[in-house]
Design a protein that fits this description.
alpha/beta; Rossmann fold; Alpha-Beta Plaits; 2 domains; six-stranded mixed beta sheet; four-stranded antiparallel beta sheet; 11 helices
């Protein structure tokens, strides 16, 4: 459904994207993971046909993103990272305007999505919070029930409950056969929703892998609090990667399942166990070496 071939867009000073090639299958959720400035938004903008590539080509459903942009927009939903909406309109008047622009006869689907995100459509956009403007853009992207979704950092600006609702919606759209391409800098987000993930660093696609492979190789760190200092000292003799020991507290890192750790801890008096989130930096270092910096 989406094909990118040797795509390069240079802005000077090694800014942009360079010789990117990948494909997204029909009905697949594909996440492009990378830090700020890595080139994620540039890829989305190329797919939307907003700028001419320096070299290479990209296609959606066999149509060139740069010569058949209007056709592609008819079956594609686009969510930018930052929204720029007409401030004088209410959310409802804006959605009605967009429905007319897109040739949609009913805004029932838009109203259903807005209700799901607890969006007050009677408020003028200029008085909306950043989160409400993001929700309005989400509704706009999905209101015409597009076959393809291009989402740039879709959960940015949303609180945790609304991020969860959006991730659930992405999974529901996948079940309905939609093809979804989205960018993120949050490993756990792509891990939850994607079939495959591409990692981009300094404008270069360093690898593409299925999520099962990434999940199996992913390392997790745990902070274990023991009942005594001696218990902690005894535990560090176990066959685990120990990151730190401080009194009764030990930080240990695992790859894959945590069952071996749980089994070993059964021999000790444990008063606390906390999971540490793996940072994007850790993910890049573990899988591809070096730092994640753009």
């Amino acid at each position: 459904m989406i094909r990118v071939k040797n795509l390069t867009k240079e802005y000077g000073g090694r800014q942009g994207v360079f010789d990117l090639s990948f494909e997204v299958e029909d009905g697949e959720v594909f996440g492009l993971l990378g830090p700020e400035g890595a080139g994620k938004t540039t890829v989305i903008r190329q797919l939307m046909g907003f700028a001419q590539a320096s070299r290479g080509r990209c296609f959606i459903n066999g149509k060139s993103c740069h010569t058949r942009q209007s056709e592609i927009m008819g079956f594609t939903g686009y969510l930018p990272e930052e929204t720029a909406l007409p401030g004088d309109m209410t959310g409802l008047s804006f959605l009605r305007f967009m429905a007319e622009y897109k040739g949609i006869k009913s805004i029932e689907r838009a109203l259903q999505i807005a209700e799901r995100f607890e969006l007050d459509l009677d408020t003028r956009i200029r008085k909306m919070s950043r989160a409400s403007r993001k929700k309005t853009a989400i509704v706009c992207a999905l209101m015409h029930d597009p076959a393809v979704l291009l989402l740039d950092e879709p959960t940015g600006g949303l609180d945790a409950p609304m991020q969860g609702r959006l991730n659930d919606l992405i999974l529901e759209e996948k079940e309905r056969g939609k093809t979804i391409f989205f960018t993120s800098h949050i490993f756990e987000e792509v891990e939850r929703t994607c079939d495959r993930v591409g990692m981009i660093k300094r404008g270069v696609l360093v690898n593409v892998d299925d999520i099962a492979g990434l999940r199996a190789a992913k390392r997790k760190s745990y902070i274990v609090n023991f009942a005594t200092d001696q218990e902690a000292l005894n535990f560090v003799k176990e066959d685990f990667e120990i990151l730190n020991i401080s009194g009764r507290q030990v930080t240990v890192r695992l790859s894959g399942e945590m069952a071996p750790l749980v089994k070993a801890l059964g021999n000790y008096q444990v008063v606390g166990l906390e999971t540490m989130s793996q940072s994007l930096e850790d993910v890049f270092i573990h899988f591809y070496g070096g730092d994640a910096g753009a």
